[in-house]
């Protein structure tokens, strides 16, 4: 029997800072290019050195004497100069977050921004992201979304945070701790409306993956009765324009339809009022048919 095919390839890498996306659950979700970079980089850095070491062991990538330098929320500013000095000296540095894509609610921004400021090469090895994975399975519009990260833990700050998001014309994506999920959903139902659609994604790509789709009011009631564990992503459907705004843009749409086609009128009004083009087009189409 022939030996198994090795998924990764060790080959010289050009100098640069490589931001490597790692799986959010299933270890096989890593890309072949990410494996190549982890096998080939002169220097390795990670948000969690144990997690990266385990991931490399799963895929049979040897360290070959390389150390894995910790670079996380608490030491990124201190660790960055050493890593960037290596890049400036012509070495390749691979940086991996604990799970997902660096910079997306994970460390990596400080070192990436400083590398750009110094004129050093910054390269991405794209891959898993809980934001995009959640959008894919949620069933909510994904043509425009707003990722807002983790809400504040304190309730007064969280309510102000949610109020600022309330009228954004995009699907909202939040991360949350399972311990605070019930409180967040209750506040979402209060601030954004109990009948607004939402989705709770738990443990995406993992063994106990779960996706719950319901109104924010129903989600709050369901989660209040449960003990929740695991990684959580919460999505909220885009806001409906309020009555005053609706009257304004619909008046503009009526005027545009006098001289433009349905498609062009909808596109112009959607852009002018920062509205979903699909929604405006449906209104324009119904008004054109009524004439």
Automatic annotation (TrEMBL):
Catalyzes the 2'-O-methylation of the ribose of cytidine 1402 (C1402) in 16S rRNA. Residues 17-220 form the Tetrapyrrole methylase domain. HAMAP family: 16SrRNA_methyltr_I. It is an enzyme of class 2 (transferase). It is found in: Cytoplasm. GO terms for cellular component: cytoplasm. The gene is rsmI. Belongs to the methyltransferase superfamily. RsmI family. Pfam families: RsmI_C, TP_methylase. It comes from Paragemmobacter kunshanensis. This is Ribosomal RNA small subunit methyltransferase I. Its main location: cytoplasm. Gene3D superfamilies: Cobalt-precorrin-4 Transmethylase, Domain 1, Methyltransferase, Cobalt-precorrin-4 Transmethylase, Domain 2. It catalyses: cytidine(1402) in 16S rRNA + S-adenosyl-L-methionine = 2'-O-methylcytidine(1402) in 16S rRNA + S-adenosyl-L-homocysteine + H(+). Its EC number is 2.1.1.198. GO terms for molecular function: rRNA (cytosine-2'-O-)-methyltransferase activity. The keyword S-adenosyl-L-methionine applies. The keyword Methyltransferase applies.
